[in-house]
Each structure stands twice: as structure tokens, then as C-alpha cells.
Amino acid sequence: MSEFSPETIRPETIRPALDSIRARIATAAQGRAVTLIAVSKTKPVAAIEAALAAGQLVFGENRVQEAAAKFPLLRAAHPGLALHLIGPLQTNKAREAVALFDCIDSLDRPKLADALAAAAERAGRMPRLLVQVNVGDEPQKAGVSLAEADGFIRAMRARFGERLRGLMAIPPLGEDPAPHFRTLVAMADTHGLPVRSIGMSDDFETAIACGATEVRVGSALFGARHAPQ
Ligand SMILES: *Cc1c(COP(=O)(O)O)cnc(C)c1O
């Protein structure tokens, strides 16, 4: 797995980091349930195993190929493991993604919905889905645009029913994320969707204060990523 991490992972640092993140989540959540997604992209299997040993069962990866290389054996050893795809998905990888992930958090266009529906039919299994919203309306960024979001979410709800669980967003870098988090949460409220996946290492407490139900934490848990993502 050397291609995933040029730096040395020290598994013994992962348990204390996890404990500290859990404590911060609990404080921010004030009794609400918030799921921690441990983002293990670029990190080796040893790091994921250390997190599993510390009781972490929910993981996020942003690339299908990398997840396919790292997770099947871990899954066999840990039946409770849940894996999220948090990165953009190409339609030609939909079949593999449907087989591999429990949750696909980056549904953002009709062609991908078609590919996922076809893949799910063949596989006899459909992961849980989140619509990714481009809350900052940034050009080149994944996610459905704000202008198209309501129509797209309604269409996905009609198509996938209860498999569509909620919304995901990544606010623009270098801006106050709170207004963007609130936009996402308001949209989820409007559509009656329970899951709001917002917040990363630098802003997960803010996201929880704004109504996050899932936070995606990578570097604060596993250390900085040196490899390009
Ligand atoms: C990498 C990534 C994260 C985690 O980022 P950190 O800042 O390392 O916590 C969260 N969400 C998505 C979509 C990512 O690609």
C-alpha cells in the first residue's frame, strides 16, 4: 500500500486523536446524534486498522480505485464497517461503487443517477445516497448548482425514495463556512431529508452548531496528507 502514503503512520497516535475528536463532537452536538466519518484517503490500511481497533467503524474515501484496494479485506474482518464515497464519481465507475460503498455522498447529476440506478438493478443492492450541493456555486466544483438543487433533489427523491437520505456540501475554501452550512441545512429541512453531511477537520464544530448530522474528518484524525488527493 506504499502508494497511498509517503509518510509513516504511527497507529498509536490514532486512538488519542479519535478520543479527542469524539469528545469535541459530543460537546458541540449537545446530545444530538452526529456520525463521525473517518476520512482515510491517501492513508494506509495500517492507519485504518488502528482506527478500527479504537472502535471507529465509519470511513470515507474519495476514490473508487483506492477504496477497492484497501477495504474488501478490512470489511471481511469487520462486518460492522460502513464505507462512504465522498469524492466525485464517474459514471463508468458506478457499478464498482455500488458494489463497494454503503453510502454514495456525491450524487450530483442526472447521468450519474441513471448509471447508479442501472448498477443497483444489476447488483440487487442500492447504497444510501446523498445529493452533493455546490453551495458556493464555484465553477469546476462538484455538486449540483444552487439554482438547480431544489429540482434535482425532488427528482432524486421521486426516483430513489428512501434511499435518498440527505445532502452533502464542501464550502468554498477561505470563506466563513457557516453561511454555507446553513444554506445546506435549510435545503435539507425544506426537503425533509434527515442527513446533513457538512464539516471537516477545520470546521466540524461549526458545522455541528449549524445542524450537521455527519462530519467528515481526515487530517485531524490521521495526520496531514502529503500526497496529492
Ligand atoms: C478530504 C476530504 C475530507 C476531509 O478533509 P480534512 O480537512 O482532512 O478533514 C472531507 N470531505 C471530503 C469531501 C474530502 O474530500
TrEMBL record:
Q: Known InterPro entries for this protein?
A: Ala_racemase_N, PLP-binding_barrel, PyrdxlP_homeostasis
Pfam families from the xrefs? Ala_racemase_N (PF01168)
Concerning SUPFAM superfamilies, the annotation shows: PLP-binding barrel
In the record, N6-(pyridoxal phosphate)lysine modifications are located at K41
Tell me which UniProt keywords the record has, alphabetically: Pyridoxal phosphate
Q: Which GO terms describe its molecular function?
A: pyridoxal phosphate binding
Query: Per the entry, which co-factors are needed?
Result: pyridoxal 5'-phosphate
Q: Which residues form the Alanine racemase N-terminal domain?
A: 18-225
What's the superkingdom here?
Bacteria
**Role description:** Pyridoxal 5'-phosphate (PLP)-binding protein, which is involved in PLP homeostasis.
Similarity comment text for this entry: Belongs to the pyridoxal phosphate-binding protein YggS/PROSC family.
NCBIfam families from the xrefs? YggS family pyridoxal phosphate-dependent enzyme
Q: What is this protein called?
A: Pyridoxal phosphate homeostasis protein
